[in-house]
Design goal:
Blueprint: H1 3-24, H2 27-34, H3 40-64, H4 73-87, H5 97-107, H6 111-139, H7 147-180, H8 185-199, H9 207-234, H10 241-255, H11 266-277, H12 282-311, H13 315-324, H14 327-332
Helix pairs in contact: 2-12, 3-4, 3-6, 3-9, 4-5, 4-12, 5-6, 6-7, 6-8, 6-9, 6-10, 7-8, 9-10, 10-11, 11-12
């Protein structure tokens, strides 16, 4: 599973979408939509991004807390920023490997255990987004909310919760298998391999910590929806906060496609599709996607560059190793 092949396929997807966009959109109208943005908006939004990034580092500290109580929030913040910086250049969120490498080295924690915390982090993200979708369905009035749209949103919410339930059951299954490993020699090696992953799920065994993680995840995704809503306000698109949640859902689905670099093309296409659901024209949708994506990349580059300098992390060396080393090494290497 060499990352090089994922990157090549990502470039092909992005290039195809960019060529399509060149001929599909009226770029004169798109520029007219973008002209209304006030420069002060970017300074205000920058501080909100700082809050978002700090909260994500703090949530990760909570996930690691039962494993090691003395983790440094500052170092976790740097590690998260560097991973987001890497995601600008790498497809399919493979920049997350930097978080594994850096944190494992800095905090002396098994790489497989760090993978477990990231897996759990994604579970909370899925749950938080699922809650927001239900909020849209039951408490908002979307402009195009007819039976078909309602059914689609409920379907998406169901998918999010089913996937969250699947991962929860998987976690419990690993725990169950760990108890019977001594009774089954065939399972012993498999369970020994999975146990460090399960160790990364320690935070969900504490009810107070689990409640805090769920609440924080819902708040964080609400904050992300608010950030997107601010983009719509800056462009005077005239849509509601709840409409922004719908667009955010489509953006997340678009980011699942391994385009490169940094979801180029897929992010913009998903923004246009999501915008169409809430009554935006294609020109408004692509303008929103361009503004959102461009500034988001700028923030990642700034935070990442500063974090690399402050942490003295050899990013080029790490980027080269991640691009050539197979995934298996990160999950089987002994600590």
């Amino acid at each position: 599973m060499n990352i090089r092949y994922i990157k090549i396929s990502g470039w092909i997807i992005s290039l195809a979408l960019i060529i399509f966009a060149i001929f599909y959109f009226d770029w004169g109208k798109t520029l007219n939509v973008l002209k209304v943005v006030n420069a002060w908006f970017f300074l205000y939004l920058f501080f909100i991004y700082i809050i978002d990034y700090v909260l994500r580092a703090f949530r990760w500290k909570l996930l690691i807390y039962p494993i090691k109580k003395t983790t440094s929030l500052r170092k976790l913040f740097y590690s998260y920023n560097i991973s987001q910086f890497a995601n600008v250049f790498l497809p399919a969120k493979t920049g997350e490997l930097f978080r594994v490498l850096i944190t494992s080295k800095e905090e002396k924690i098994s790489k497989r255990t760090i993978f477990g915390t990231l897996f759990l982090e994604r579970s909370f993200d899925i749950f938080g987004m699922g809650v927001l979708i239900l909020v849209v369905v039951f408490f908002s009035k979307i402009k195009t909310l007819d039976k078909n749209v309602l059914s689609n949103l409920l379907f998406f919410a169901a998918i999010f919760f089913v996937f969250f339930s699947f991962m929860t059951v998987s976690i419990l299954l690993i725990k169950h298998l760990a108890f019977i490993k001594k009774k089954s020699a065939k399972l012993k090696k498999v369970i020994e391999f999975l146990e460090p992953f399960y160790h990364g799920f320690s935070s969900i065994r504490q009810l107070s910590l689990l409640t805090l993680l769920i609440s924080l995840s819902i708040f964080m995704w609400g904050l992300n929806a608010f950030i997107l809503y601010l983009y719509t306000l800056s462009l005077s698109l005239g849509i509601s906060f709840f409409d922004s949640i719908v667009i955010l859902l489509f953006q997340l689905l678009g980011e699942l496609i391994p385009s490169a670099p940094s979801s180029m093309g897929t992010f913009h296409a998903s923004t246009v599709i999501g915008g169409n659901f809430v009554g935006l024209t294609k020109d408004q949708g692509i303008a929103l996607g361009l503004l959102n994506h461009s500034y988001d990349i700028l923030v990642r580059l700034i935070f990442g560059f500063v974090s690399i300098q402050l942490s003295s992390f050899a990013f080029k060396k790490g980027l080269k190793s991640i691009g050539t080393i197979k995934y298996a090494k990160y999950t089987t290497e002994s600590e």
